[in-house]
Amino acid sequence: MARLTRLEYAANIVKLRDEARFSTICIHAGQEPDPSTGAIITPIYQTSTYVQDGLGRHKGYEYARTQNPTRAALEANIAAIEKGKAGFAFASGMAAEGAVMTLLQSGDHVVVTDNTYGGTYRLFERVLRKYQLDFSYVDSSNLEEIEGAIRPSTKLLFLESPTNPTLRLTDLRGACEIAHARNVVVVVDNTFASRYVQRPIEFGADLVVHSTTKFLNGHSDSVGGIVVAVKDEHIEWLRFIQNAEGAILGPMDAWLVLRGTKTLTIRMERHNANAMALAEFLAAHPKVTRVHYPGLPSHPQHALARKQMCGFGGLISVQLGSLDKARTLLEGVRLMSLAESLGGVETLISHPATMTHASVPPERRQAIGVTDDLVRISVGIEDIEDLRDDLAQALDHL
Ligand SMILES: *Cc1c(COP(=O)(O)O)cnc(C)c1O
């Protein structure tokens, strides 16, 4: 490549992403030194409007719902990370999903991974059904179920892999092939893996959504969402809807997520390593009934995990035999915090049946494996010895 100045290199890095390597993209893509001061970090453009030079003469920024430079930097950054063409940042992961669903019209049908995030299920069932959208929930780990659920009116396949909280996988390449043969658009919620662990667009996904609240921000101090698109028709619509509905990510949060993505590689390496070590520890523990983790050879889709993922992610779930035992563990840990959410540097432990999946009816919870004895751990990047000791002392009380 021709020798570029520092500034030219930064300005071009989104285009250069096919040549630049992953960590370099995470740290640099979308971010140029601030043109007025040279500040290396993109400023928080906390402004609602921009002064124009004259009628119709401005610097490309008119009103901050429509354009904000901090948000634009984050959108370019994550688009490059996911190897998409454009990104659109929203006020939350749910707002991002809501925006994607506006690609549809009443009468359209969607095939959905059955144990998808509880909030996704609530959005589809309690909100979007009012607009005559129809949803079928299938065990997408079985490609035949996906194929069998597609109808003439099916417009979208909405996949989550690994799933929350039972960590089932979908063969993303196989699912995309089936969907595309029937002209169905594929959306992958990549929140649980992040692009370090899993590359949906390379497997054929048309749209990738994230709750940036989780691994991308990584520090449990911001709520946000992003949609990454590859097709011009989707990009055009998402740009329109982001402005028309206005559920944008604010500049402070965009800045926090930009700070987060810089360390994505080293955080994910450590999340992967810590989760693997804890999964092995738990699998060997006599008081644990069952461990769900794609990195364990006992996981029914371990071979697919090795093929499709780089490392196995930071989420583990364990079954303990009863709600009482689950409660004892959840209340007995000292270092791990009892809290919803995931993907932060600190380890969180939660009870999906009463926390993240409380909005899912009990019969459905049973059907998708969200049993009352199931505990989910979002493994942070603390020292593994301390995490292991904490679980060991809490398990002693069972
Ligand atoms: C958290 C989460 C969401 C929703 O994101 P918010 O930022 O909380 O709105 C969607 N999908 C998955 C897999 C999640 O974990």
Helix content class: 25-40%
Number of domains: 2
Which spans of ≥5 residues are poorly predicted at pLDDT below 50? none
Can you name the CATH architecture of the largest domain?
Answer: 3-Layer(aba) Sandwich
At CATH level 3, the topology of the largest domain is: Aspartate Aminotransferase, domain 2
Cα gyration radius (Å): 21 Å
Strand content: 5-15%
Shape: globular
Name every ligand kind in the structure. Answer: pyridoxal-5'-phosphate
**Structural class, from helix and strand content?**
alpha/beta
Major sheet details: 7 strands, mixed
* CATH homologous group name of the largest domain: Type I PLP-dependent aspartate aminotransferase-like (Major domain)
Number of helices: 15
| CATH class membership of the largest domain | Alpha Beta
Strand order of the largest sheet: 1-7-6-5-4-2-3
Q: Mean pLDDT across all residues, rounded?
A: 94
Question: Count the strands?
Answer: 12
H/E series, N to C? HHHEHEHEHEHEHEEHHHEHEHEEHEH
Question: Between the first and last Cα atoms, what is the distance in angstroms?
Answer: 61 Å
